[in-house]
Amino acid sequence: MIRAGEGRFYDEYGRTLLLRGVNLGGSSKYPVEPAGATHLRDRFYDHRNVSFVGRPFPLDEADEHFARLRAWGFTFLRLLVTWEAIEHAGPGCYDEEYLNYLVELVQKAADHQIALFIDPHQDVWSRFTGGDGAPGWTLEAVGFDIQSLHPTGAALLHQEHGDPFPRMIWPTNGAKLAAATMFTLFFGGDVFAPQSHIDGEPVQQYLQRHYLAAIAEVSKRLARFDNVVGYDTMNEPLPGYIGRRDLTGHDQLLRMGPSPTPLQSMALGEGIPQQVQVFGLNPIFPGRTRRQWLNPERVRAWQPTAECIWRRHGVWEIGKDSAPHLRQTAYFAAVDGRPVDWTQDCYYPFARRFAQTIRRAHPEATIFVQSEVTEPPPRWDLADAVNLVYAPHWYDVLILFGKRYTAHLGVHTRSRRVAVGAPQVRKLFANELRSLRAMAAERLPGAPVLLGEFGIPFDMHDRAAYRTGDFSAQVRAMDRSMRAVEDALLSGTIWNYDAQNTNAHGDGWNGEDLSIFSRDQQHDPTDIHSGGRALPAVVRPYARAVAGEPLKMSYDFRSRTFEFRFRHDPRVTAPTEVFVPTYAYPDGCRVTISDGRYELDQVEQKLLYWYDLASTEHTLQIHP
Question: Domains of the chain: which residue ranges?
Answer without folding.
Answer: 3-243+337-538, 542-623
